[in-house]
Amino acid sequence: MFNGKTKSEGLGEISSSTGTSTSLIGAGTSMKGDITSNGDLRIDGTLVGNIHCSAKVVIGANGVVQGDINGQQADIMGKVSGTITVKDLLQLKGGSHLSGNIKAAKLQIEPTANFNGECHMIGAVNTAAAGKPVQEVKKDIKHGELAAG
Description:
There is one protein chain. The protein has 149 residues and is mainly beta. The protein has 2 domains: 7-117; 124-149, no CATH class. Helix content is 10%, strand content 42%. It has 2 helices and 16 strands. Strands 1, 3, 4, 6, 7, 9, 10, 12, 14 and 16 form a 10-stranded parallel beta sheet that branches. Strands 2-5-8-11-13-15 form a 6-stranded parallel beta sheet, with no helix packed on it. The longest helix is centred in the last third of the chain and has 9 residues, at 134-142. It is globular.
């Protein structure tokens, strides 16, 4: 309407090269409620609620999230109060503030990031313990060593 592009042309511009779309909560926008997304998600505004994303979550420098974040990957540049669980890489960028626990397979924290909470590394399975029942693994650990099958 304003620049001569049709509505479908404008929407096509926000799609990534893989064909999945990126959802954006822009600066100055406040939302309450949970968000579920199959594509990438970027928060530059304020969200009071949980995020469940099967792709990448980005919290921009001015973004604020009060709730838990679950996703494949996450880049945090703003403020988060809640538990962050990612299956792959979590990056806490410079100037970010996180008050809450982390569960991630990989973690990268820049020197000027602020993190208060506990960190649990997930996804890395000890091959000697793989396939054993949890009670059996705990028993082997008590005896000082993991024993293979």
